[in-house]
Amino acid sequence: MNRLENCRAILAGCNAQAMLCTSYHNKFYLSGLYSSSGYVLITQKQKYVIVDSRYYEEVRQNNRDAQVLLMTGEKTYDLLINGIIEEENIRTVGFEGDDLSYDRYRSLEKKLHASLVPIDINPIRAVKDAQEIETIQKACAIADEAYAHILNFVRVGMREDEVANELVHFMKQNGAMKESFDTIVASGVRGSMPHAKAGSKKIESGDLVTLDFGAKVGQYCSDITRTFAVGKAPDGELLKIYETVREAQQKGIEAVCAGTRFCDADRAARSVIEKAGYGEYFGHNLGHSLGINDHEDPRLSPTEEARMEAGMVVTVEPGIYVPGLGGVRIEDDVLVTANRPRVLTRSPKQLIVADKE
Known about the structure:
By secondary structure, the chain is α+β, with helices and mostly antiparallel strands. Helix content is 33%, strand content 22%. The protein has a six-stranded mixed sheet, with helices on both faces. It has a four-stranded mixed sheet with strand order 8-9-12-20, covered by helices on one side. Strand 13 and strand 14 form a beta hairpin. The longest helix has 24 residues, at 130-153.
């Protein structure tokens, strides 16, 4: 099915005659509009894109299959939508319950001449088409290039935020629209914090440094994590942790295949970490789906029993985080296929020592 057919299948399942898209991600997916402004309304008969004069011409050119309606001070969005409701005899409109605030919902409820029902539109984006996969691959390639660059850039004594700024600058200089999310740079003991944003801490010789970052291309994200050493390789337990995470990540990747339950991929990686005695230090899911948003559903979690489908793109990112010592995470973006997983991020995963003494 195409995108509109998928939307209409969701409508049929919830007994609604129209869906109103308000989120950045779903508006972009269905119309190319990536903005907090504007609406996409899908009915059983037509696709409507409702925008103001700032977006009208661009959206009109990109949506030959839709009616593009111009919002003005006189022709407000509710007036336009109510005209469609009356013309198509729409009784129930589905709305994105996970996107609308309570106040916006109450406003819609008062203004629209139809009943409102919350629906989950996001599943229409789960399986990527060939063009989406190609775009994500470009974002992954830029991230790989950025990692290679940063290994030659980083020096003992640099601040974490200097490294983060260089990563973002390099990605933008090499084809990224922007970064996928706030870049994580966690060095030394800060590596025990999975989502530590880059700070003013200086990188010391012997530190492990975890980088979690991504490039956005055509509004599609990449998301990669690598951990490396600076100055000299650490000794003792951190080396054991690194190799444990690397083995767990490989087992997780090998489990990515159409028909496999997401929880089983999580279990494949998590069991390696538990066997090594670090189960309590791996507190997050193995990964998540990836696309227009950097975190999408379904998730590779211990409780997600849905099965993977060919064309999904997921992250595989186990980690071990020991307070007072440090941490390691390794992450790749992986395309689900009918057979073997296709790893889209290709940066090396052996422990690398940058700025070696």
